[in-house]
Design a protein that fits this description.
13 helices
Length: 376
Amino acid sequence: MPSLEILQITWWVLLGVLLIGFALTDGFDLGVASLLTTLAKTDDERRLMINTIAPVWESNQVWLILGAGAIFAAWPVVYAVAFSTMYFAMLLVLVCLIIRPVGLKFRSKMPSQNWRNCWDWALCVTSIIPSLLFGVAVGNAILGLPFMFDDHLMLQTKGVFFELFNPFALLTGFISLMMLLAHGAAYLRLKIDHPIAQKAHGVQKAFSFLALVCFISAGLVLNNTCFGFTLESASGSQNILAKIVGVQLIDESGELTQRFFKSSAQIAAMMAFFGFLLSMVSGKRKAIVGFLSTSLSIIGVIATAGLATFPFILPSTLAPNHSLTVWDASSSRLTLFIMLIAVGVFLPFVLGYVTWTYRVFRKRLTLKDLSDPQMY
């Protein structure tokens, strides 16, 4: 059996992979639906956009389930803290994720244009909100959340909602929203043979530029105005309270500057920068280049956040010494090992199913395809 440290690192990497998988797949679902009322004007055009994501959205949601399940099983304390402190925000995301599939199923059940317009706007709004809130959650995970533990390791949290929307978290939220809008536009260029694809090209370039501006701005804000957490000493055990965490302004700490701006996080940030730049300059006839570039930017952004904050997963603003790290917030060695075996057995089936789904529905859609009774 591998050592506990190796298992913890493995699961930290695996969690990042699952989050990236969710952002890459369900990300374009959210992006396409968010653009539904902007790019498409007629009912047929909106149906065309909807049918690019309708066959695959369910398989894309698998990544969200896997990611949440991985946090729950491998990092149970992180799961408890995150969902307790951000309860109302998570509940809002859940409501949106419930309404989206209902909208996909219900909008075409009646011929009334008012009925369909209402569901189109519902799909749009319930896609924009999660896209924004996922980024806001990441921003707050970097800055820290209000929680602490008593002497018996009983969790004490302060549930917040409006406090989550601080300037830095809003910036990270806009990064998430803009890059998913660009990703959705890039996916539309791949999937439809219609003038909408040409409009999507301009949308992709515009939102890639805005995402890049927000990404750079977030780095500047983080460096000049935000506090960072440093692990000054640890016991080597899984006791959350047995460590000392320092809190300093990032631009005044050599260690924090090294971690945020001169380490592997910088490589990830350059990957995101290159992805945004490539998306902005990709040609109209190179739809695959546009999609790969937005995918690269998503990978780079998520990797930047993870690498810059390692080994912290959730810092605490109420009691910095109670912050959760990779080393003390995980499940036991045996639990992590058994779960890793389960992942090794079942993940290939998930990948096979998702690959098969995309292969079956790989056809580019036109307005003529809407005559198929199976279309939404």
